[in-house]
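JOB MANIFEST
job_type = single_chain_structure
chain_count = 1
residues = 295
[input]
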Amino acid sequence: MRTELECLPCFFRQVSRTLSYAAVDPDLGKSISREASRIVETASLDQAPARISTLLHRLMRERTGMDPYREVKETYNGIALELLPVVRMRASGAGEGGDRLAGAVRAAIAGNIIDFGIYETIDLERSLRDSFELPLATTDYDLFARAVDRAERILYLCDNAGEIVFDRVLIEELRGRGKEVTAVVKGTPVINDATMDDARATGLADSAGRVIDNGNDGIGTLLEQCSPEFLEAYHDADLIVSKGQANFETLVPEQDERTFYLFKVKCPVVAAALGRPDGDIVLSACQSASACLRN
């Protein structure tokens, strides 16, 4: 993935939205916005958009001295927990031919809509409906199911707070199949990405066999900035489940055949890169995703 010209307005929307959540005074907001503009102006477009967003959000947290999305995360953790029984029920009946893994995959993808790096408002009910109705046949689900059967150690890269509640459905299904699952959250707050506090608040720490953080505040997974503990788990895994667009953007250059990407398409740049409609559900093997980007 590289940054396209269409990404530039999105960067500035992220800055405006985050400063609004932080409720900064106009003078500070103007100063931060100018610094953010310089970051965007000097950034190379030959890198993933998530890497530029990381610099912008790092700047805003440093200048405001706060986590602007803390209350949003708490709110959506609560909303998702209230919906969890319904999602479990839908997942148990949604698997094609009684395949519980397929239903759990749909549940996990549904939660990926909870992304305040892209959206200002969230239509969670619509996301649930779409994720349980759009066809998995257009994805690499069969390859994923076979990879799950072969794997013993699975590394599950989480994305957003709230979303991790629905990840519990897939993680519990994987553990029910005898798999050793390590769930990974962020080491430091960034946008509404999940941290250890969110893992504890949502029960993720109970559902997964092990939860670790990756040791940094990067949007997506920036391997060169990750902790030794994370890197050891990453290299030891037989299968890597990568949730969300940012993890896709930052990990697809690795061309690691152990990796499967699960997310909802949420921007025209990613939609064009994958040749998929905006809003579609994606379960893509590394090989398939890499082939799309080369084309």
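[summary]
The mean pLDDT is 91.
The longest helix spans residues 70-94.
exit_status = 0
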